[in-house]
Design brief:
- The protein has 17 helices and twelve strands.
- It folds into two domains: 421 residues, Glycoside hydrolase 38, N terminal domain (7-stranded beta/alpha barrel); 118 residues, Families 57/38 glycoside transferase, middle domain (immunoglobulin/albumin-binding domain-like, Up-down Bundle).
- The strands form three sheets. Strands 1, 2, 3, 4, 10 and 11 form a six-stranded parallel beta sheet that branches. A four-stranded mixed beta sheet has the order 7-9-8-12.
- The radius of gyration is 24 Å and the shape is globular.
- By secondary structure, it is α/β, with parallel strands linked by helices.
- Helix 9 crosses helix 10 and helix 12 runs parallel beside helix 15.
Length: 566
């Protein structure tokens, strides 16, 4: 049985939008906690000649930031600040009578030094570091929508095409290869049919193509969905298998149970050819296995809640270092015990071997396991950031999988090359968000964002053909495209819905919308503010310098529209 582990790496554009807490510190923290440790682990596995066929998604908006000189500058400053905190720890801990925590401060200093040395060895170029593992055939890199726009809720098909085709082009530009796979932002999918997310939506009720059509047109071969999308909205059960050693046995995003007597029509243990209005689309989908994936990500019921692992929520101020472990189940923050890095690393090895053994047991019980697969997609930041020992777990897992008989770790593309997808699958609407639907992005707290974004879409695609023909207006159109794309990021509605730093998400969304609206106003025939817009476009490019070739994709999308007679 094949095992596909996919990691989805994404952050919205944060460079040049302040530092703490949600500016450049956000991407620097992700680099220190997750991206650099992951590269270190891949290097170690390569040195040991241990296969590590990870499927790693890096969104174009994240990749553009990692490739920016501004990121290198910000990360160096962040390293310096963290190292200063470690240097001050001895005095700080003595003042509060916490000298017993000093060995943990020394651990953090050594840890940070190692990561900084790795960053310098890579010349500050994380894109090249990931590309090195790609070129060696050790990982597969996949792309996503350019700025992680929530595709099913965008008003114009041209906008969906721009997100996906630009995502394809940017991946090829930065990584030197055409991506086979795409991570649909938020794993959000909508089949063909009438479109009317809100009564005021432009063209509400009109028939629109399914997302798979745009995925295929962009050149991608596969994507991932949550498990309930391949079972007509029902959560998967265990199909009669007895895998009693799983700490979690069932459940996936919608928290409803199947009706009495329900027999799942489809299995998450195959890749499927996605049907497009009754016919094959030529695009495959992988369904998240709800059982094994929850074993890894659930703090309450899976590995990350182990008492020896680093406690994410307890931080010592000033400085921001973490000195404590999860400790006894249900213990409050005041009762946390000191962290032991050696013991925690040992537990990661135990859990990795446990997980590999359970996958082996699953392969022994699934009928026809030779042609089956288990796909487990996660946010990359789970490993290292939310679950500090998670990256060590990944390394130990690949070491353990090499010793199993029935489990073959492969990339998603590798599985499809060896096993053509099963017969066509009609996917239902859904996402991997709370409730398994679109409610994290479209609800009473966020419904005001969509009409504003839809109006920008309408104006952009109406004005783009004329502006492309005018050399004076092309730079303004290019920056309007970037501003529109940045406003489309699904992060803003998600943050608003969680209730955390809502003001930040509203500020970023409205700023990008305002930028796009002003630039588009100068592209109207007879507009008298073109010179002002040209200056604004240049200033915005200095701040948000992503997607240098965006107009090439805009032009390609318009050519597709003209060819289709849209």
């Amino acid at each position: 049985m094949d095992f596909v582990l996919a990691l989805h790496s994404h952050l919205p554009w944060v460079l040049n939008h302040g530092r703490w807490p949600h500016g450049s510190d956000w991407i620097c923290e992700a680099a220190l906690d997750t991206y650099l440790p992951l590269l270190h682990t891949l290097d170690r596995l390569a040195a040991e000649d241990v296969a590590s066929p990870l499927t790693i998604g890096i969104t174009p908006v994240l990749a553009n930031q990692l490739a920016s000189p501004d990121f290198v500058t910000e990360l160096e400053a962040y390293f310096t600040q963290r190292m200063e905190t470690c240097a001050e720890a001895e005095t700080s801990l003595a003042e509060t009578g916490d000298e017993h925590l000093l060995p943990i401060a020394h651990f953090w200093r050594s840890h940070l030094l190692g990561l900084r040395q790795l960053f310098h060895r890579e010349g500050g170029d994380l894109i090249a570091a990931f590309r090195r593992h790609l070129d060696a055939g050790r990982v597969e890199l996949i792309s996503s929508g350019a700025t992680h726009g929530f595709l099913p809720l965008l008003a114009r098909d041209e906008s969906i095409r721009l997100q996906l085709q630009l995502g394809y082009a940017e991946h090829q530009r930065l990584f030197g290869r055409k991506p086979e796979g795409v991570w649909l932002p938020e794993c959000a999918y909508r089949p063909a049919g009438p479109w009317a997310p809100l009564p005021a939506a432009p063209g509400a009720g009109r028939h629109r193509a399914g997302i798979e059509v745009h995925v295929a047109e962009a050149g991608f071969k596969y994507f991932f969905v949550d498990s309930h999308l391949v079972d007509a909205g029902q959560a998967f059960e265990l199909y009669g298998a007895d895998w009693g050693e799983w700490r979690v046995i069932g459940g996936s995003a919608p928290k409803r149970r199947p009706p009495s007597g329900h027999v799942p029509a489809n299995s998450p243990y195959f890749a499927y050819d996605v049907l497009s209005e009754g016919g094959p689309s030529g695009v495959a989908c992988f369904a998240r296995d709800p059982i094994s994936s929850r074993q890894v990500w659930s703090r309450q019921e899976g590995y990350p809640g182990d008492e020896w692992y680093l406690e994410f929520h307890k931080i010592r101020w000033p400085g921001g270092l973490k000195y404590w472990r999860v400790s006894a189940p249900g213990s409050d923050l005041g009762s946390k015990e000191p962290y032991d890095p050696v013991e925690a690393a040992g537990r990661a090895g135990v859990h990795a071997r446990h997980f590999a053994a359970l996958l082996e047991k699953m392969a022994g019980q699934l009928p026809g396991a030779e042609d089956r697969l288990v796909a487990v997609p996660f946010d990359t930041e789970l490993f290292g950031h939310w679950w500090f020992e998670g990256v060590e777990f990944l390394g130990q897992l690949y070491r353990s999988l090499g010793k199993q008989q029935r489990i073959r770790p492969v990339t998603a593309g590798g599985h499809l090359h060896a096993h053509p997808p099963a017969s066509g699958m009609d996917l239902v609407t859904g996402s991997w968000g709370a409730n398994g639907d679109f409610s994290m992005w479209l609800n009473p707290g966020t419904d005001w964002t969509w009409p504003r974004l839809w109006a920008i879409e309408e104006n952009f695609w109406a004005l783009a053909p004329g502006a492309l023909q005018d050399q004076a207006r092309r730079p303004v159109l290019a920056q309007a495209a970037r501003a529109m794309l940045l406003a489309m990021g699904s992060d803003w509605q998600f943050i608003i819905s969680t209730g955390a730093v809502t003001d930040y998400a509203i500020k970023r969304f409205t700023e990008h919308c305002a930028d796009a609206e002003f630039l588009l106003s100068a592209l109207r025939p007879g507009a008298d503010n073109l010179a002002e817009a040209q200056k604004a476009a240049a200033e915005q490019w200095d701040r948000d310098h992503c997607f240098p070739d965006v107009l090439a994709t805009v032009q390609a999308v318009l050519a597709d529209r003209e060819g289709a007679g849209a």
